[in-house]
Amino acid sequence: MPNSGAGFADLLVADGVIPLLPAFAKDAALKALARAAGDRLGTPWLMIHERLHIREQLGATGFGGGAAIPHARLPGLSGCVALVARLPQPIDWQATDGEPVDVLVLLLSPESAGADHLKALARISRTLRDPRTMPALRTADTAADMMAALAPVTATV
Question: Which of 21, 43, 106, 154 could lock onto 83 through a cystine, CB 3.0 to 4.6 A?
Answer without folding.
Answer: 106
